[in-house]
Design brief:
Chain lengths: ~575, ~190
Amino acid sequence: MKTNDIFQILIFVAALTLLTPLLGKYMFNVFSGKMNLSTKLFGGLENFIYKILKIDSCEEMNWKKYLWSVLIFNFLGFTFLFILQLIQYWLPLNPQGLQNVSPDLAFNTAVSFMTNTNWQSYAGETTLSYLTQMLGLTVQNFLSAATGIAVMLTLIRGIKNKLDDKLGNFWVDMTRTTLYILIPLSILVSVMLLSQGVIQNFAPYETVKTIEGSEQVIPLGPVASQVAIKQLGTNGGGFFNANSSHPFENPTPFSNFIEVLSLILISASLTYTYGLMIGSKKEGWILFGVMLFLLLCGIFTSLYSEYIFNPVLSTASNMEGKEVRFGIVNSVIWSVSTTATSCGAVNTMHSSLSPLAGMVALINIMLGEIVFGGVGSGLYGMILFVFLTVFIAGLMVGRTPEYLGKKIEAFDIKMAMLAVLIPNILILVFASVASISETGTSSLGNAGPHGLSEILYAFSSGAGNNGSAFAGLNANTVFYNITLGIAMLLGRFGVIIPVMAIAGNLVKKNKTPVSKGTFTTDNYIFAILLIGVILIVGALTHFPALSLGPIVEHLIMKSGVAF
Amino acid sequence: MKIFLISAKFLLLMTLITGLFYPFFIFGIAKIAFPNKSGGSFIEIGGVKISSELIAQKFDSSIYFQPRPSAISYLPMPSGGSNLAPTSLKLRNKSDSLKKAFIRRNLLSENTAIPPDAVFSSGSGIDPHISPENALLQAERIASARGFGLDKKNKLLELINILTEQKQFGLFGEPRINVLILNIELDKL
């Protein structure tokens, strides 16, 4: 580890910590309908949207109505993107004349973008037209991110409000999030990326004659606008196959810094927004602290692992799959951040990471995408773990568990367990099926324990709605397109539905006043308990599989054996 | 049924705003503020586009600097890396032979420390940069392949020095040198 590495990590953490309260406060104002600069710019548009929808923006919904709106709206978004891919050949803005996408791949991609996973079975530059990238992928990048935030808002309102059944208005939450948060930030980030050399055009691919006289086809497209939201919305689906390692998506170290900060910024800031919404900034900072601690553990473990001498390749700095302009440390900051959040964009090929760095990426996803996590989904996932921790602490001292004055009862815990278990079950069941079937293993790109890691990673990435990959695995087969599609769907809505059920249940309850015996959750002891619960649940579920994959690979590598 | 109608209308509006208005708005800014960069940073020699400054191209000849190895032979349709594991036999054989070739080609001694970027392929397959160490190890061979005298050889070393990009703003990333630009300037020596 060089001083320079530590320095670059410090800059990243400092920028993140400084921006969190700023953006957090701004988002709080947006969600509570206060005026700001953006409302002055887009306020007319907001009211126009409500007028077209013929809705009353003051009318709130109960949890069932809100949930139906989420489900139906997402279903329509999926259908639109699915059909768009099936007919892209006949539509405009397709200068390369790219063919219609096959139905299984179109299904996979549509589910993937609707669920905020953005798994890349497709290769952007050879599969999708400019129109599909814009109308399909970019739009879902915005809407799936906004959906995550909307669901999170219902849970917070469930905790905050009492003796009620109203959780807000889905359309209002979606509109405000998109217009006042996602679009302004995307424009800002796009412009910064443009200044670094990210492309934005609608020209046909350029065929150039190189200096030595051979031909090279260079794909182009409206990249900057999509990269900005793919990072900010923790989506992660690249415009190009190589994602943010492609020089047109991420040309300089500074563009890399902007992108890696963007992919974590909203999720981090939401902890502060949360603190303001429930009326205790400290509660928000405790969650931020827990997340940052787990993130830094990941970064330092990965960095350490990358610098271990690898006798197989006789090197202590493996540059396979990495770019010179980023070097090892920026590849590692990114690989940990993109898996801790549910972004899944990559600037380095995860499959070629050293075994333990690959394992950190895998564990981040397996923990349930709660270390900052996806926008909105990270926070609601983390709050589920808060419930579990409060419950376990309550059992230890023999009192009814409470969180912020709300009694956490059997129904809430059942739902929380369901939401925690569903993604884990999906990972283990699908990965076991794939690793014992001919169809599953015929896609492997690497032999030995790394092969198991590839399969494990694919289903973790799907069920956790991350979208990054150990891309040695050829996932563009009917088997993987369909099974991963199902994992993504259940991994997303298998959490959203229980979360909203909890929100609907909590909002009905009264608040118990704070007394001497109240279990407080805004202190370090609680933070340590929370970290313990997260790690125990994650470790108990996944340690056996991890020990057969990356752990054994690490040990074998140290003895110099290759596969 | 009412929710379906509202959903459909909302999806339509959002598709127009985020799927059409937003990308074209960014396109407008790009056209005005960054016309060359947003077009792909293409380099023209004598009116002919020879490539983008940001995309690596193949250089085989011994009179040019070689870029990093590419898993896609520098043809980004589509872009990508090898995705080979750190315990992959294939990767070991590949990097071993690339190392030997690099030593042979540049007439280096067997135990020279070869910079990892010279033997491992990039993630994108079109990484436009190499490390300054990599460039310096190739300089001697290029000078002799071009029949450079001492004077020109010094100019070559100076060129490497000038074209080496340090950390951006002194903070971000790693030192690097753009192979295409280096080779274009090399031809001008």
